[in-house]
Design a protein that fits this description.
Elements: H1 2-13, E1 18-19, H2 25-28, E2 41-43, H3 48-61, E3 65-68, E4 87-90, E5 97-101, E6 106-110, H4 115-124, E7 127-128, H5 141-147, H6 154-157, H7 160-163, E8 164-170, E9 176-179, H8 192-196, E10 205-212, E11 214-215, H9 230-244, H10 256-263
Parallel strand pairs: 2-4, 3-4
Antiparallel strand pairs: 1-2, 5-6, 6-10, 7-11, 8-9, 8-10
Amino acid sequence: MVTDLLDRLRAIVGAPHVLTDGDLTAWEQDWRKRVRGKALAVVRPADTAQVAAVVKACAAAGTAIVPQGGNTGLAVGSTPDDSGTQIVLSLQRMNAIRSLDAANLTVTVEAGCILQTLQESAEKAGFLFPLSLAAEGSCTIGGNLATNAGGTQVVRYGNTRDLCLGLEVVTPHGEIWEGTNGLRKDNTGYDLRDLMVGSEGTLGIITAATMKLYPLPAARLTAWAAVPSLDHAVTLLGLAHKHLGSGLTGFEVMGKFALSLVDK
């Protein structure tokens, strides 16, 4: 049964992209190197059709799938268990920026695209993609969507869910739901997009998304302020909202312990 499944997966994505031997640490170990699992195989599809075929094959074999983007999460959500029976489905090869619509201020990107790559591509085209977080050089858009990442500019632009206009998803049955239309006013039916964002791969595998872009800011200003307590920080946030309105982009609080780590 296992051999049959692996042969089927090799036929779908190509033998070089079904990894069973060698060092699989990059896919089997969490980012903090605290948990190490063991996968039956790491499968790296090249497109959505291959993802759907892999899901169908694994469903038929009764084999669990662990979707994985950049594997930068800190909660072991994309790490396989140690049973050696799970398939890690890596979306790293699906990293293309499919299209950028300057008129609609949207970009359609595959799930394996690195966040920083999207930021830089948007800026080169004269736009801002505002999601920004510490792991942006290695985390992927699919992972950002699966976890509904917030980042440092959530005060103004919201979480990843707020930046998403549409999704392409492979369901647990291996069907493809295509919803990357980029409509800004869409009040049709159930909102499957919002349901999928933040579901961490439990409802389907996000393979692509249409995201919002914004004009590049004409100027930026960063201010540091020292406050005696968290209560004072909350008061300062309220004042910033009152006087800056939508101009307030981010508000981060660092305690003594965090500052001590910076010194190290």
